[in-house]
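ok trying again, last paste got cut off:
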Amino acid sequence: MNRIAILYICTGKYDVFWKGFLRSYEKNFLPNSIKEYFVFTDAPSLYGEDKCKRIHRIFQKKLGWPYDTLMRFQMFDSIADRLQEFDYVFFMNANCKCVSVITEEEFLPKKKDILVVQHPGEYNKKPKKFSYDRNPQSTAYIPKGEGRYYVCGGINGGRTAAYLELIRELKKNVDIDIKNHVIAKWHDESHINHYIYTHDNWEMLSPSYCYAEDWNLPFEPKILVREKSKYIDANGMKFGKFVSALRKIARKIIRKIRKN
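nice, full thing came through this time. structure:
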């Protein structure tokens, strides 16, 4: 029986998704495998952890946008030694919900090591229209005219050894970007897309496994990505960070004026 590690991040208000996530994955996701959940959160407690020893709560302070997503490879690498006990490791976005039974036969990679999912908003676009990072200063850079597929950042994984290599590589790339004062266009998603552009050890599933809530897609929904605005004010949180940054800049300018 396969041992599966599921990585999950819910800092700040995102813990509102955890209960629905856990219930749906326990019921529908890889039913013939042993699943353990590694939850990076600042919540003082998690639904189900008092009864289920397969839930591991790991304290993670809220880093703010965009670092809550951009720094996920650093988070995952911090428990690499614990993950080595498992056959497969998968990351799932906080707002995912498994709405249909997903078997091992259909989901686990077969001939390759890494699993990615085609983005529901990009599957029918031509490569030149993909939302790749076109900034040559970023380690996630993909030149115009290059690339074949665009995958989502919120669902990926694979065989443990290979996925840990992916984590380490993308952690290194993110660190390089930050040192150079660069933020990839779509953060972790841009880095995942650069990874599949530069490697061939991956298999790709359809948008059925990243089906955006309330979208009308020609796929059967298997993993539903719930609309954040129905549960939390995600845009308000980002706007608050933006306003806070502007205030800091204004204070610096005022101090500089006063000194002069």
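cool. The longest strand covers residues 151-159. Strands lie at 3-9, 34-41, 55-59, 88-92, 96-98, 114-118, 151-159, 202-205, 211-212, 223-225.
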